[in-house]
Amino acid sequence: MQxxxxxxxLPKPEPKPEDLLDQxxxxxxxxxxxxxxxxxxxxxxxxxxxxxxxxxxxxxxxxGDLLPDTCLIHxxxxxxxxxxxxxxxxxxxxxxxxxxxEGITLxxxxxxxxxxTNAIGLDEIDAQxxxxxxxxxxxxxxxxxxxxxxxxxxTEKKWVTKEVNVGVPFVFNYNTEVDDALRxxxxxxxxxxxxxxxxxxxxxxxxxxGNRLFVFLKRLAADARQRWDEEKVKAFVTSQEFxxxxxxxxxxxxxxxxxxxxxxxxxxxxxxxxxxxxxxxTKDAEEEEDSWSLEREALRALIQNVGVRQGxxxxxxxxxxxxLARQESKLxxxxxRSFAGFLRACGWVKGKNWKRAMSGSERNKAVLYIxxxxxxxxxxxxxxxxxxxxxxx
Length: 393
Fold this sequence. Notes:
The chain is α/β, with parallel strands linked by helices. The protein has helices at 20-23, 32-40, 50-62, 85-94, 106-115, 125-131, 135-141, 180-183, 197-204, 209-225, 230-237, 240-247, 254-269, 275-290, 293-310, 315-328, 336-346, 372-377, and strands spanning 74-78, 99-101, 120-122, 148-155, 158-165, 170-173, 186-190, 312-314, 354-356, 366-369.
């Protein structure tokens, strides 16, 4: 009897990451530097230290059973178009044996969490939050290991409430501005575009980088478990020695010191001396979030040249001015949502000194008034005259 191959044969099962230990020894990184280099083959970073931060996050996930339940931090990627945000999200998710989900519904996400996973990867989370009702609340709930979220399920023709464990790390990327509550629980890494042929080809044909990084981190974690258990870790985290290390981190926001504490603990358990890199990364995060020095200087010039004379500036002109300054410094443009966060930091309040014009050349367009709060924020010498009001007064 003649037989033929099936038209659509079942795909061969993917090898388990553990198989690499025996079958692909030469492809698994042997040192921390080799692991960082492997990451750079797939992803380009704006900060040279960020591959280390990414690996430390992965190590903290591997050591999750030893760390206190509150030592759970998420991971987020941002950057301009074509900077590899989706690639980085998938790689980070894969290196901790997580599940990458695209085009989700809340029910599907909860079911995946109920099945169990080490981490969840979400693409374009800013768009997902606006589309998937309840996603933001779920992310807020995932603040510690063992956190639960209520899910209604149908069993035997009736609805029952089931508690789903959502206390796992989330890996995500975003194009605009991440919610502040999520920012407080996540390490945020900025990527850079890289159109080199080698990078493009490498991403077209991946070489098991995620699995190889998983095995590398698993080895470090296994070695750490030879020396540490939950009680020893708890004693270290509450020790004067650890408190003295954290005291050297002079952060403005407590949340930045909290995230640094998780990375420092993971590094200490694995005998890695990375305190200086973690410290610098924390300072970088604060500078990016709180300084806005380049943007403020560009907007201050616009206020002095235009705002002082007419008492207001057009929102679109302000955004264009700021982004031109960023472009000259080889930075990606701010989205309207990110720019809104910058305006709030400068003292503009929607509905007060930031509102739509009711008359004049900017009718029905957003304008930014130069009032006492803005004078103080930009350290201007005196209040400019309101030569033209556009709000119908």
